[in-house]
Write a structure and sequence with these properties.
heterodimer; A: mainly alpha; about 75% helix; B: mainly alpha; Cytochrome C Oxidase, Chain A; Cytochrome Bc1 Complex, Chain D, domain 2; 2 domains; 27 helices
């Protein structure tokens, strides 16, 4: 029965492949780009939640 | 340096959300506890229609998800967003509309669900007027959030905010698609999708409600409140970026793992499995990132209940996200699905991850919001241990129950017969485990009540003056050469919004689109006919009473199931099912092949008092179905809507529907009378419609066709 649905729906293998490939691209690209660069900026970003405490501003 | 500006954060709205989080949390958990007790003592349904299991289970899930966790999300977002962006919320009016609108929706849910007003889509049960209200309030929240982002004083968006943005976008898309329905009356609608498609859209939604309501916003909260409580930055900010993109990309694909071995096409099932397995990577990346934030601070964890709550929360997140993918493997799913294993799994996530993180956040927030110290750190510690114990008492018995029951369902004797042919045997076996689960739930609720007292006393000892704060105005940003790519997004919330929308839409479209294409290609089975008006009304009673919360209608293609129930279910059998009623849990047996299994009178007696037919049954009695008259007020309207959705009723059939209904009702009543059931006006009672529906179930496939396989 599944075969029946598949043949009727046309060739959908490309969809699975497309999904996998886009995903791998997004994932690998973001990983590479993220880990390549600029530690100062990263440190600044990661301290954002703590800023109000560190600056000692009124509450 | 730009000029320093003085302003106030709006903490009143945060306090409001925090308080209702506590209240709804206790309400939602208590309803859950009541449901758990009913599985041990059905009499705990109090003899009222409004408080039977099938109606309060959705009340519990909706309250836990949308009232407790929902308000928890808003508490955390309204607090952290203002501070991360160094600005007050965009509009106090919108904040108020959001707050009161959301509480009104919760109230509407708390009223309509016990009344049996439900669309029967799990976790999207609310009917269309409330759906519209949800959409409006959600949009208000969105405008308020993006308005705040646009008027921010901080140039860059911290990762928590990306999680909030992705949450907002995805929940919008999911909510709209899963609630496409045509109203029949004020409190009844019919979904535009039927059968297999309805199932796919529903579980695409259902899964992503977990992903984008219970997970992504809470990850945002984790990335804000865990560093706050630990007083140190997140372990790796870089990892959090990869975590974000990986997670939102993959999550959206995993929905079909809820439908393994059902009539859903194989390719969609495989897609669900593959992406579920891939989910381990970003999930565990996030978990490790959270836990490693505490490196070097473990001595503080020992003394600080807030950190303890957070550690257990993040660990539970790790466990649930390892278990989830494993349950998506077909051979494991074959064992776990429809059993209480799934319920145990869900509660590791909700009690462990959502609950514990909320508790930690509230203990941290209340002293800040009321300018004071926590009333009792000791009580918070006690709460921590009670809650942890509660989770264990809740989950371990359910894993055990699920495993035990599944093995009993599948066990054969050497001569080829099922060892436990009577389904009820597999239920009574696990009732002691249900009792332990209820105890675990009681502990957990008890802990939450303790917290409420502690927080109340904290609030009373404090004051609510909102001090002013200062921050420099945002400078105009000048991009410099070779700048790090992601900063481009971090600076631009609109790009962020579009980026995450695209990412989640890819997954959604690839999954949903082919299903829509094959609309006309779900194999038509000639003998499958639309429901008669009486059956249709009976079906709506089945929906109203929430029978779906204990009964599936989907026989999987296993020998253990075809032996027990009959021929396995075919996708073509569900083309007129709006909504689909496959169910997700078998506290009672599957009902898809129930038709003609018993005489009408058996059902009459069984619905009146299940124990009369099945001694020891934990199914609740439904005496009101026997007393109440069937309403035919909307029968014609239902037929009309179904016709616009291409259900092949004859031309003008809506005008004859009630006549036909009465004819069929008289037949059922006659058969009941022939079996000695003498009740006045029997043919006008709801029970007659329900029996007609139950007797129709799964009978459209002809015996010849069944043998052929």
């Amino acid at each position: 029965m599944y075969k029946y649905i598949l043949s009727e729906a046309g060739n959908i293998n490309w969809m699975a492949l497309f999904a996998l490939i886009t995903f791998m691209t997004v994932f690998i690209l973001s990983a590479i780009l993220v880990f390549r660069k600029n530690n100062d900026f990263i440190t600044k970003m990661s301290h954002l939640p703590l800023e109000e405490d560190e600056a000692g501003s009124t509450k | 340096m730009s000029k320093i500006e003085t302003f106030h954060y709006d903490d009143k709205i945060v306090r409001n959300f925090a308080v209702v989080t506590v209240i709804w949390g206790i309400v939602g958990m208590t309803v859950g506890l009541l449901a758990a007790i009913q599985l041990v003592w059905p009499a705990a349904n109090l003899g009222l229609a409004e408080t039977t299991f099938g109606r309060i289970r959705p009340l519990h899930t909706n309250a836990a998800i949308f009232a407790f966790v929902g308000n928890g999300i808003f508490t955390g977002v309204y607090y952290s967003l203002q501070r991360l962006l160094k600005t007050r919320m965009f509009s106090d009016v919108l904040s108020k509309v959001h707050f009161w609108g959301w509480q009104a929706i919760i109230l509407a849910a708390a009223l309509t669900l016990p009344l049996g007003i439900t669309s029967s889509h799990e976790y999207a049960e609310l009917e269309w007027p409330i759906d519209i209200a949800i959409a409006l309030v959600w949009i208000v929240f969105g405008i308020n959030m993006f308005g705040t982002i646009l008027k921010r004083r901080e140039q860059h968006l911290y990762v928590a905010i990306w999680f909030y943005i992705a949450t907002w976008v995805t929940v919008t898309v999911l909510h709209v698609f899963n609630n496409l329905e045509i109203p029949v009356s004020m409190w009844k609608s019919i979904p535009v999708f039927a059968g297999v498609q309805d199932a796919l859209v529903q579980w695409w939604y259902g899964h992503n409600a977990v992903a984008f309501f219970l997970t992504t916003p809470y990850l945002g909260l984790m990335y804000y409140f865990l560093p706050k409580a630990a007083k140190r930055p997140v372990y790796s900010y870089k990892l959090s970026i990869v975590h974000f993109w990986g997670l939102i990309f993959i999550y959206i694909w995993a929905g079909p793992h809820h439908l393994l071995y059902t009539s859903l096409p194989d390719w969609a099932q495989s897609l669900g499995t593959v992406f579920s397995l891939m989910l381990i990577a970003p999930s565990w990346g996030g978990m490790l990132n959270g836990l490693l934030t505490l490196r070097g601070a473990w001595d503080r964890v020992r003394n600080d209940p807030i950190l303890k709550f957070m550690v257990v929360a993040v660990s539970a997140y790790g466990m649930a996200t390892l278990e989830g993918p494993l349950l998506s493997i077909k051979s494991i799913n074959a064992i776990s699905h429809y059993t209480d294993w799934t319920v145990g799994h869900v509660h590791v996530g909700t009690l462990g991850w959502n609950g514990m993180l909320t508790f930690g956040m509230l203990y941290w927030l209340f002293p800040k919001l009321y300018n004071t110290k926590l009333h009792s750190v000791k009580q918070a510690n006690v709460h921590f241990w009670i809650a942890t114990l509660g989770i264990m008492f809740y989950c371990i018995p359910l894993y055990w129950a699920g495993w035990t029951q599944s093995m009993m369902w599948k066990q054969f004797e050497p001569d080829g017969f099922l060892s436990y042919g009577n389904f009820l045997e597999t239920v009574t076996q696990i009732i002691p485990m249900y009792a332990m689960r209820a105890l675990g739930g009681a502990l957990y609720v008890g802990g939450a009540i303790m917290m409420a007292v502690n927080l109340y006393k904290t609030a009373k000892s404090g004051s609510v003056e909102d001090k002013s704060t200062q921050a420099p105005a945002r400078e105009k940003y000048v991009a410099h050469k070779g700048e790090y790519w992601h900063r481009w997004i971090e600076r631009r919330p609109v790009q962020m919004l579009i980026g995450s929308t695209v990412v989640i839409l890819i997954g959604g479209l690839v999954e949903i689109f082919p299903m829509m294409l094959i609309d006309n290609n779900v194999p038509k089975i000639e003998s499958v006919q639309p429901y008669t008006p009486l059956e249709l009304e009976g079906r709506d009673i089945y929906i109203r009473e929430g029978c779906i919360s204990c009964h599936s209608q989907m026989v999987r293609p296993f020998r253990s199931e075809t032996e027990r129930y009959g021929e396995y279910s075919k996708s073509g059998e569900f083309v007129y099912d709006r909504p689909f009623l496959w169910g997700s849990k078998r506290t009672g047996p599957d009902l898809h092949r129930l038709g003609k299994k018993y005489p009408d009178s058996w059902h009459y007696n069984h619905m009146l008092d299940p124990e009369s037919m099945s001694p020891g049954s934990i199914m609740p009695p439904y005496p009101w179905l026997i007393e109440d008259d069937l309403s035919t007020k909307y029968t014609a309207a239902k037929i009309k809507v179904l016709k616009t959705l291409n259900t092949p009723y004859p031309e003008g059939y809506e005008d004859d529907a009630v006549d036909d209904l009465q004819k069929q009702a008289a037949e059922v009543a006659a058969s009941l009378r022939a079996d000695g059931i003498n009740q006045e006006n029997l043919e006008n009672k709801e029970i007659v419609a329900l029996i007609a529906y139950l007797q129709r179930l799964g009978t459209d496939i002809k015996p010849e066709l069944m043998v052929e396989q």
